[in-house]
Amino acid sequence: QVQLVESGGGLVQPGGSLRLSCAASGFTFSSYAMSWVRQAPGKGLEWVSDINSGDGYIYYADCVKGLFTISRDNAKNTLYLQMNSLKPEDTAVYYCNIGGNWGQGTQVTVSS
Fold it and tell me: What pLDDT, on the 0 to 100 scale, is given for residue 103?
């Protein structure tokens, strides 16, 4: 079955950086577009970024454009999210997603 395991979250000061990873298994990773989605405390799910499979097209939410970079390593079945210049409003649980499948999420807290 599909399994997604996120990692790399933590506590970081404003302006800092983190790199999230999502290890995928149970499906042909290279054939599917993947997404990062986040949920801030007390708020709903917010889409962050997508990366296509074959053509590698990438899409970002306006609020992270130029700050976050999504990438994938099909040989390692892993999705990444490089997050730079982090702000307190980036505090959330970050999930990778394919279709209706979700991982457990990784907590990112941006605070001084």
Answer: 92
